[in-house]
What does this fold into?
Amino acid sequence: MRTLTLALLAALPFAGACADDSSMADDTADVNCAVETADQYVVGLEKAGTVLDVQLMSALPAPPARGDNEWIIHVNTVAGAAPVSGATISVTPFMPKHQHGTPVDVKVDAMPSAGEYKLSPVNLWMPGVWETTIEMTSTSGTDSVVYRFCIPS
Ligand SMILES: [Cu+2]
It folds into this structure.
C-alpha cells in the first residue's frame, strides 16, 4: 500500500503535464508506432556523433518496451574506431511530444569489455516516442547521440 501511494505520487506531476495536452487521449490510448518516425531496434544499432560513435549492443527487453529497460552500449572513437573506456556518461530519456522525462535516474556502469557500458534502468514509462540522449565526456572528446524508440501501447 505504501509503495503504491509513493508510485502514484511520483507519477502525478507527469500525468498532470500530459493532461494539459488536448491530444492526451490519442497519445496514451492509441499509440501507433507504425506511423511514427523512430529507430528500429537491431543488435549493434549505431549512432555516430562527431568524434564518438555508439552502438547499442543489447537491449533487455528487445525491442525496448514500456517500463524499465537495460541497455549495453559500446563507445568507439569515430577516427580510428578505438574503444573508449573511462568515459563519463549521462543518459536522459525524454518524450518530445509531451515535453517530459522520467523521475528515474539512469545508472551507468562500465563493463569489463573495453568501451562497453551498461545503462539501467532506462525508464520509458509511457507509450509513445521516447528520445534517449547519451552524453559522453572522455579523453577522446565530448559528444552526444540520441536513440529514438516508439513504445507501443
Ligand atoms: Cu508522455
Summary: Residues 18, 95, 98, 100, 126, 128 surround copper (II) ion (CB under 6 Å).
